[in-house]
Amino acid sequence: MKTAVDFCDAGRKQGMRGKFVERMATLGACKKWESNYEEEFHRLAKKTLGVHYEMYKVATFVRDRIKVTRSAQLNVLLPHEVVHLLWLYDRPRFDRIFSVHKIVSFWRKTIERDEPWFRGHPLRDEVIAADDKSKFLPVTIFGDDATMRKTRMLHTITWLTHVLSIPDD
User: Fold this and answer.
1) Which of 138-145's residues contact partners 24+ apart within 8 Å by CB, and which partners?
2) CA separation for the pair 117, 154 (Å, rounded)
């Protein structure tokens, strides 16, 4: 976040204009309160862009110069909400990234191959019975953990879709 604020501040000094740039450059009371950057940015984004979303606080570890790591609460957007916001506010981009053809093809092949992972899937019957299989976005959620300093664990969750199309823009 600090990098974005510094970038907007530097751009403003070079003549870049606009309400968003001006406001971004002054987040955290003109850099006096860096701890306020994130909260002020989300407030600004919701107001300026008209996008309404909810941030969820999660307990995690962050880097610390003295103790190597320390506990912290960070805000995250949940994967299904990110995809929904993209669909809601930028449908053309959503359609370019999540190709309907690729989604339908994915489910057709999954059903034909009788994939082992799909046999116990909670939505299996619904996906098979659906006339429009593009309504089911195939997403994998992968979790892993690692030991940190013998007494703590770091848990990570990664999500990805199998039908991602990278747009040219």
Assistant:
1) 138/103, 138/106, 138/107, 138/110, 138/162, 138/163, 139/79, 139/80, 139/83, 141/79
2) 26
Q: pTM for this one?
A: 0.54
Residue 160: CB atoms within 10 A of its CB come to 11
Q: Give the amino acid at 26.
A: T
Residue recorded with tokens 């989300």? 42
Condensed to tens digits (0 to 9), the pLDDT of residues 69-94 reads: 778 887 777 777 878 888 888 888 88
Q: Count Cα neighbours of 150 within 13 Å in the Cβ-side half-sphere.
A: 0
Domain boundaries, the chain: 1-51
Q: Which two tokens stand for residue 7?
A: 């970038």
Place of tokens 């703590």: 152
Query: 111 is written with which tokens?
Result: 């059903």
When the pLDDT of each residue in the chain is averaged and rounded to a whole number, the result is 76
> Following DSSP, what letter does each residue of 80-120 receive, concatenated?
HHHHHHHHHH-HHHHHHHB-HHHHHHHHHHHHHHT-HHHHT
- Find the radius of gyration of the CA atoms of the chain: 21
Q: Are 58 and 35 a contacting pair, CB within 8 Å?
A: no
